């Protein structure tokens, strides 16, 4: 089974944004050493506790300090941007780091209404136009964009020998159908969705329209997972991120992921306790053996080609240790 990493570049309450970004580099390097297939970093805008607003900057930084692991965006929030510029950026990365670049495409705003307005004055219109934006991006990635003047051609230079691999990321049937209609790979964000994912993924497979005979439907499922030497320790580490989610939903959480001590002391209403338990049930938690069993069952449920793991903990050491334990159990 192939396993990969999605990194939201979280900031712990005792760290700075710079320290969080340096931890992201450390995670990518460890993921490569451990045998994970790819490392993606997410895009967020003015969200408390999340450090990465420009994945393309971090990918250049990380790409130069790794050598084999695939790296990419999880995701480029395309409605904010012109497809031509996005193609230039990822073609540049693919030129620098051959056969290693993925370009994940998403439609979410990635931040507050104020941040969205600051980034793009026509975001909602572009959300509706996403299929057209994807088409335009793909023509530039494939270097077959034809300008209005049929005698001139526009290229998103530099043109790499191996194109970046496009993916649609989503949590709904709409995103699955879009990926299928465009004939590209699909990443279902189980960790962000409250919908029936199996039905959504099946829709993608059923509707898939290959661009060439070689193209086949390709599925990654992204899940929250925390592994530790014991289930009790894994649940303790998970509490930090669970409480942080509650804090963010209340407009709090600006200090980042709380420590275990802070999380234990945080007052919860009855409803919030129920929310924590619901979120906890969606996570893959436990000892290495327990986590392996759950990931294997998860993969079989979705018939996925790959599982991408999101792990947020207060301690960077606990975070990396979780990936190490999973890799030792499943990738060696």
From TrEMBL:
GO terms for molecular function: oxidoreductase activity, acting on paired donors, with incorporation or reduction of molecular oxygen. It comes from the Bacteria. This is LLM class flavin-dependent oxidoreductase. One of its GO terms (cellular component) is cytosol. Residues 1-301 form the Luciferase-like domain. InterPro entries: Bact_Lucif_Oxidored, CmoO-like, Luciferase-like_dom, Luciferase-like_sf. To bacterial alkanal monooxygenase alpha and beta chains.
